[in-house]
User: Fold this.
Amino acid sequence: MHILLTNDDGVFAPGLRALRKELMCLGDVTVVAPALEQSGVAHTITLLTPLVVKQVDEEDGSTLGWMVEGSPADSVKLAICELMARPPDLIISGINSGSNAGINVLYSGTVAAAIEGAFFKITSIAVSLELSEHFDFPYAAKQAMRVIEKILAHKPPNGSLFNVNLPAHSRGEPKGVRVVPMGLGRYGEGFERRQDPRGRTYYWLTYNPPHDVRGPETDVSSLCEGYITVTPLHFDLTRHDRIGDVSRWKWGE
Assistant:
């Protein structure tokens, strides 16, 4: 099996390194990832500037992969179209520093990289670790591998897309795995108003997770309870249930 590994935290991120070590047990792993952190860029692609690519080597002189001066989606697109001799059998994006649950899925560069892989009809899995004071990426990578292997054992159709979130190690051993939908509750959005040394006003986005996680189980609520969450995704945003109704509107008047 040939695996493409990417992320949005940058090619030198510890989460990527930890997961690469585990994935090498499944097959050959090629890393193509952004040169710098690209958190929150969603499905940005580079159109107006060239994409600079550099090979990255390990300390022993072996090749790790490539770093791309672009977005996570750029990295996957470039890897498949140019950098790899053939398309990979599997694409993994992560491990991200911080969860990508609920509506954060829409902002996530980690998830966007997996979506880009699914565009190419390649099974793709995004993996994120809940925010914590101390990240234990080696431990998280082992937990992620159990989920990845379980997904692969069920031979999902080509182009399948999954979003996996891991609870912080500080919560203890995960209570299990839940397959749950995205939470749709709004996060506590806000900005902190500050002034720079020259007296200019600027704003810094604050992070406040949803206050109310009651109701049906979602990735947000289950992660808060200490479960690993798995959410099958798709990128078709069409409201198919509305096509018939809207098509009957009198568009010619």
User: Anything to note?
Assistant: The chain has seven helices and eleven strands. Residues 137-153 form the longest helix (17 residues).
